[in-house]
Amino acid sequence: MNESPTKQDSRRLVVAMLLLSVLAIISLMLGSTFISPLKIIAYIFDPANSPDQFTLEVLRLPRITLAI
């Protein structure tokens, strides 16, 4: 039994990963304080200079990690 992934399986995996990424970003934005997508992107590239560092690192990222 040589089961190789088909193109359809690969496409499903790519779509699932994209959907998971979008939902993770939405989850980072939502909470008692709204954090804009631009601030999240700025945090990803330079976490030390983000005013929302505590909220993202201590509250929201662990929540997303556990959900995945």
From TrEMBL:
Q: Which InterPro entries match?
A: ABC_BtuC-like (IPR037294)
Q: How would you describe this protein's topology in the membrane?
A: Multi-pass membrane protein
Q: Which residues cross the membrane?
A: 12-35
Q: What is this protein called?
A: Iron ABC transporter permease
**Does the keyword Calcium belong to this entry?**
no
Q: Which residues form a coiled coil?
A: none
Q: Does the keyword rRNA-binding apply?
A: no
Chief location of this protein within or outside the cell:
membrane
The Gene Ontology CC terms held by the record are:
membrane
Q: Which UniProt keywords apply?
A: Membrane, Transmembrane, Transmembrane helix
